[in-house]
Amino acid sequence: MVAIIGLTGGIASGKSTVSKMLKEKGFTIIDADVAARVVVEPKKLAYEQIVQTFGKVILQEDGTIDRAKLGSIVFHHEEERLKLNQIVHPAVRSYMLEEKDRAIATGKQTIIMDIPLLFESKLQWMVEKIIVVFVDEETQITRLQERNSFSKEEALARIQSQLPLTDKVKEAHIVIDNSGTVEETQRQVENMIKKLNLIP
Ligand SMILES: CC(C)(COP(=O)(O)OP(=O)(O)OC[C@H]1O[C@@H](n2cnc3c(N)ncnc32)[C@H](O)[C@@H]1O)[C@@H](O)C(=O)NCCC(=O)NCCS
Ligand SMILES: Nc1ncnc2c1ncn2[C@@H]1O[C@H](COP(=O)(O)OP(=O)(O)OP(=O)(O)O)[C@@H](O)[C@H]1O
């Protein structure tokens, strides 16, 4: 039996930090943020649709999408974000499902689907158990500002474009609280692997 585990949380709550720890333990991670980059590469269908919808102003000189520019549009205008989601999300879903089948075919016993918008996109059906990486809002804002050099306003715009993390925690099978040190998070990850009896 293959276990399909969803890993989610909020922006900068620590999903990548946790998924890196799981990867080091030999687990297979399928990352929706990576998928969302692949499906918008030049010549892909989603790329063409994004350029048609948002115009060439969101392109860099080399023709690739200027993510900072597109981000500054969609995280300040909900309507624009929904348009982008409608273009990108179907392609991300197909990519994730294909990667999952590929991993199953190579004999993996556990597959971790790292999906930041798992609840927002109602993708609970894709996974059997859900891990939510939690962080308190103050720490989340600080880490997001530091990582992306965002103003507080830019950090809040991104956080507010997602469901509250406290709501996601209520729907979780396992919560990893990443408000503390990386070592504390590592211990929680190890306990979770034991509790769910996960084998790579
Ligand atoms: C707006 C874009 C260009 C900004 O790119 P950027 O490199 O700055 O951010 P990145 O893609 O690494 O995302 C960082 C985090 O932002 C959050 N986020 C991204 N897109 C969204 C969205 N549409 N709604 C809410 N939160 C989002 C997630 O927590 C994600 O982990 C990019 O995020 C994007 O194309 N988003 C639409 C696709 C999407 O929903 N991706 C999320 C997983 S499917
Ligand atoms: N326990 C921790 N202590 C201190 N800093 C941390 C901790 N966990 C993560 N960070 C830092 O916080 C930032 C956000 O973490 P990370 O990138 O893992 O979040 P994420 O949920 O994957 O973000 P995104 O949704 O944007 O992809 C990073 O700069 C990371 O180095």
TrEMBL record:
Gene3D superfamilies in the cross-refs: P-loop containing nucleotide triphosphate hydrolases
EC numbers, comma separated: 2.7.1.24
GO molecular function: ATP binding; dephospho-CoA kinase activity
Pathway(s) served: Cofactor biosynthesis; coenzyme A biosynthesis; CoA from (R)-pantothenate: step 5/5
GO BP annotations listed: coenzyme A biosynthetic process
Function: Catalyzes the phosphorylation of the 3'-hydroxyl group of dephosphocoenzyme A to form coenzyme A.
Protein name: Dephospho-CoA kinase
